[in-house]
Amino acid sequence: MPIRINNIKIPVNSDMRVEEAVIKKTGISSAGDVRIIKKSVDARKKSELKFVYSVIIDPDCNQEKLAAKIGADAVLIKKQDRTPFIFGNKKLTSRPVIAGFGPAGIFAAYTLARNGYKPFVIERGGDVESRDIAVKKFWNGGGLDPENNVQFGEGGAGTFSDGKLTTRINDARCEAVLETFAAFGAPEEITYQAKPHIGTDKLKTVVAEMRKEIISLGGEIRFFSKLEDIRITERLEAVKINGQWQDCSVLVLAIGHSARDTFEMLFKKGIKMEPKPFSVGFRVEHKQEMIDRAMYGDFAGHPKLSHADYALSYRENGRGVYSFCMCPGGSVVAAASEEGGVVTNGMSEYARDKENANSAIVVSVTPDDFGDGALDGVKFQREIEKRAFNMAGKNYKAPCRYLNEFLGTGKGGNTNPSYLPGVEFTDISRIYPGFINNMLKTGFAEFDKKIKGFAKGGVLTGPETRTSSPVCIRRNDELVSASANGIYPCGEGAGYAGGIMSAAVDGIKIAEKIMSVYAPI
Ligand SMILES: Cc1cc2nc3c(=O)[nH]c(=O)nc-3n(C[C@H](O)[C@H](O)[C@H](O)COP(=O)(O)OP(=O)(O)OC[C@H]3O[C@@H](n4cnc5c(N)ncnc54)[C@H](O)[C@@H]3O)c2cc1C
Question: Which of 249, 285, 429, 520 registers the highest number of CB atoms within 10 A of its CB?
C-alpha cells in the first residue's frame, strides 16, 4: 500500500535530492520510486529558506509499521473503489450546445466529447492564433476588436494571463484538470507545485491541443459564432447563432464575466439572474527585485527560486481590500472588450522574467454600493471603464499615477508602467468614488507593514473592474437554470467560479449532470 509522506524539508541552498531526504526522514534503506505530489517554499524564516515536499512512495517493507513509526507526516493510501458513472437514458433531440470556449466551456466540451455526446461549441471570438494577432494589434495601438480580444476568443479570459492554477475550492476534480492540462502540453510540475502556473505562452498551445482532441472525439467548434438569442416554451427549444436559429434542447452557458450583451439578452428573455458582489481597483507594479528581497531576504535571486509572489488582504467595517491575480515578472495588460472603455489585468509568460511584479489591489463592492437591479453591477463597471477611457485620451491608453502621489506621500517613483498601448499620468482618484479610494489608501498602509516598501516607489494603472462576474444566473441543484429546463449556467460568467481552475471544474460538473440525465448520442 503506497504511503504519502508530508513535510520533507530541504534547505534551498542544499544539494540534497528528494530521494535522499525521504531516506533521511523515514530511515528506510531505499525509497524506490518517489512521486512528488506537492512542492512549496517555506520562506517564513528568511535566514533558512526551505523547499517543502509531499511525496508518495511504495517501499518494499511493512508499510503500516513504517507509517506508524513516521507518525503524523505519513498517510497510508487506501485503494479507492471508483463508483461507475451512471449515464442517463433520456434521448437528446439535438447535440448539446456549449456557448463559450473558456476553461468552463473547454472542460464541459472535453468531458462530453470523451463520453460520446458530440458537443457543438460556439465561441464569439476567434481561434487562439487569430486572437493573438488581434490582441497584439490592440496592444500596439491598432484599435480594439470587440469580438476578438483579451476577454473573448478561444481559451476565454485566461489565455492572456499568468495561467495561475491556484484555487480555494477543494474538489477532487481539480486533480483531473491539472492532469489534463499536463496531458495536453502544460509543464508536468503543475501537477504537484503548491502554486502551479502555466504562463500565457504555454497555455495557448494547451488550449489548441484540447480543441483538436475534442474535434477528434466528434465534437465541433465554431469560432466567430455568437449566441444571440434563445427560444423557450415549456423548456429551451432553440438558439440563435449569427442570425440563424437551430433546434437546441441542452445549452451550456459558459460565457464568462464580460458577455454583457448576452447577459442583457438573457435578462430580457426572463432568465432569472441577480447582481453579485465583485471588486474594483488598480494594478500596482513594483520592481520584482524589491518583492523578491522582501519575501526571500538574502535568498533573493537564488537560482533555485522563481520570482516571489504575495497575497495581501485587509478588512474594515465589512469591506475588504486585497491583492488579486498577482503576476510575478509579468506585465499589466489592456483587457478591454467594449469600445470606449479601458480595463486592466495582469499577465506573465511561463518564464516570469519581466522587470516588474504586479497585482490588482481591489476593494469589494456589493449591490448596496451599485444597486440591486440584476444588471446594475454591469452598469457600475461600464461607467468606471468609460470614465477612465475619457480621462486618458479616448485611445485605450490607461490612466496612471505613481503610488506616492496617489497616497500623497511623495513625488515620482522608480517603477515604469508596463501597460500597452501606453499610459496617461493623471489624477486617477477621479475614477472611483471616495469610499473606494479611501479603502485603497488604507490597504496600502496596511500592506506596507507586511511588505516593507510596498506603499513606496510603485506605480498604479487602471481601472481593474473585471475581477469576477457582476451577475449570478440562478440554477437549481440539478445545475439547470431556475427559469428554463435545458439551460445550464456554467463557470465564472454565471457566478459559479472565480479563476481558471474553478471554472474548469464547474464545466466538468455541468457535463456530468448532463450525462446523468441524457444518453450519449
Ligand atoms: C488578463 C487575465 C488574466 C487572468 N489571469 C488568471 C490567472 O492567472 N489564473 C486564474 O485562475 N484566472 C485568471 N484570470 C481569470 C480567468 O481567466 C477566468 O476566471 C476564467 O477564464 C473563467 O472561465 P470561464 O470559462 O467561466 O469564462 P471565460 O474564460 O471568460 O470564457 C467565456 C468565453 O465565452 C465566450 N462568449 C461570451 N459570450 C458569448 C456568446 N454570446 N456566444 C458565444 N461565446 C460567447 C467568450 O468569448 C469567452 O471566450 C484572468 C483573466 C484575465 C482577463
Answer: 285
Predicted confidence (pLDDT) per residue in 217-234, tens digit = 999 999 999 999 999 998
Helix-, strand-, coil-residue percentages of the chain, each rounded to 5? 30, 25, 45
Looking at residue 206, the DSSP 8-state letter turns out to be: H
pTM of the entire predicted model:
0.95
pLDDT of residue 77: 87
Of 161, 167, 276, 332, the one to substitute when testing ligand 1's pocket (max ligand atoms within 8 A of C-beta) is 161
Rounded Cα–Cα distance for residues 99 and 251 (Å): 7
Peptide bond into 367 cis (omega under 30): no
Report which protein residue has its CA nearest ligand 1's atom 4: 161
3-class secondary structure, 143: coil
Query: Are residues 61 and 487 in contact, defined by beta-carbon separation less than 8 angstroms?
Result: no
Q: What is the pLDDT of residues 67-98, one digit of tens each?
A: 999 999 999 987 766 678 899 999 999 999 99
Nearest CA to ligand 1 atom 17: 158
Domains and CATH numbers, the chain: 3-76 (3.30.70.2700), 97-273+472-517 (3.50.50.60), 278-464 (no CATH)
User: How many alpha carbons lie under 13 Å from residue 508 in its C-beta half-sphere?
Assistant: 14
pLDDT of residue 161 exceeding 90: no
What's the CA gap between 458 and 91, in Å, rounded? 59
Residues with CB under 6 A from ligand 1: 99-105, 122-125, 150-153, 156-158, 160-164, 226-227, 254-257, 259, 262, 325, 333, 335, 345-347, 491-493, 497-501, 503
List the grid coordinates of 50.
Answer: 526551505
334-343 residue pLDDT tens: 999 999 999 9
1 touches 77 (CB < 8 A): yes
Match 463592492 to its residue by C-alpha cell.
365
pLDDT mean across residues, the chain? 95
Burial bucket for residue 23 (CB in 10 Å: 0-12, 13-18, 19+) = middle
Q: How many Å lie between the centroid of ligand 1 and the Cα of residue 151?
A: 6
pLDDT at 426: 98
Atom of ligand 1 nearest to the CA of 122: 43
Backbone angles phi, psi at 463, to 5 degrees: -95, 155
**Ligand 1, atom nearest to 258 Cα:** 30
Can you say whether residue 438 is alpha, beta or left, with left for phi > 0 and alpha for psi between -120 and 50 degrees? Answer: alpha
Which cell numbers in the block locate residue 25? 526522514
